[in-house]
Amino acid sequence: MAIDLDxxxxxxxxxGRYWADLDGxxxxxxxxxxxxxxxxxxxxxxxxxxxEGRSIALQLVKRxxxxxxxxxxxxxxxxxxxxxxxxxxxxxxxxxx
Length: 97
Fold this sequence. Notes:
Elements: E1 8-12, E2 15-21, E3 27-35, E4 39-46, H1 56-71, E5 74-77, H2 80-88
């Protein structure tokens, strides 16, 4: 069962983080590094085990994809989960570095 998330985005220098609060004080997150060539390297996606299987990580990735389209930047999917999602969504290929 998917959960409708309120996804937040914070940037601290060259580091960025997409995150969402979950029940019980838990958080899901996806972190990245910004590069000078207007791309980001997504390095990590984490969802607490109790919340797995609810499309939470996919929602974080989709938010980054939407932001990349809007902000005209590219994505390097270093995180294995994100790399799999890019293979499953060939319509995102134009965002790959």
